[in-house]
Amino acid sequence: MSISRKRFFSIAAPQDTTIYVRPGYNRMLAEEFEALKVKRVGLVKDKVEAHSQGDLRENFGFKAAKDAIRAVDRKMTALDRFVARNAFIEVDPASWLTKPTDTLQLGHVTSIEKRDVPGNRKQVFTFLVTTHGETASDADSGIECLPHASPLAAAVLGMAAQASRKVTLPAGDAILTVLSIRNPTQTELDRLLTAIKPPQVDDEAE
């Protein structure tokens, strides 16, 4: 049975943690929260205007504005919890170009062999171990971004080249071997590091 890449590279469930991010991420979080506050003010105005139009039982504009306000409130709460739950350390990717390569660390390019247990199926992947939220891939080099907080990254960070380790991943047990460790090139960083985006947070209702 083939293994879904989405499942294999899925991010672990949210928990209290330190998240490494690129410069500007903290500012983007604050801007996202302020944008939600501004959006909510506009929706409240829409709700008040719709309320003035009469019978609320058939006032679809009022109901739509009310539902939209609730959705924004849930997103604001989720974002607030995301910020409160985690500590964010900004890391400049320029430092990745020359860092030591004795063991696998954030910012390194690595080739990893994954051998399934049982089954003995082997796959080789080449990753840039990167900061929170990066998912880009480079078709020219075959390199994919591997967020440092993913289950796979957590299993291999700190390993030396040619070292192996048996681990349990979301897709099952596997033996991982770090085939190589090197620094990225500036061209690779330019291709792989995309614009910083707001986090995808769960906006579950209270």
Overall structural class, as computed from helix and strand content, comes to: alpha/beta
The separation of the N and C termini measures: 39 Å
- Radius of gyration, CA atoms, in whole angstroms: 22 Å
What assembly state would you assign to the polypeptide chains in this entry? single chain
Q: Which CATH architecture of the largest domain is right? A: Roll
Strand sequence of the main sheet, in spatial order?
5-6-4-3-8-7
CATH topology of the largest domain: the name is: Chitinase A, domain 3
Beta content comes to 15-25%
- Output the CATH class name of the largest domain: Alpha Beta
Total count of strands: 8
* Domain module count: 2
Figure out the total of helices.
Answer: 5
Largest beta-sheet details: 6 strands, mixed
Residue windows where pLDDT falls under 50 for at least 5 positions: none
The H/E string reads HEHHEEEEEHEEH
**What percent of residues adopt helix (DSSP H or I)?**
25-40%
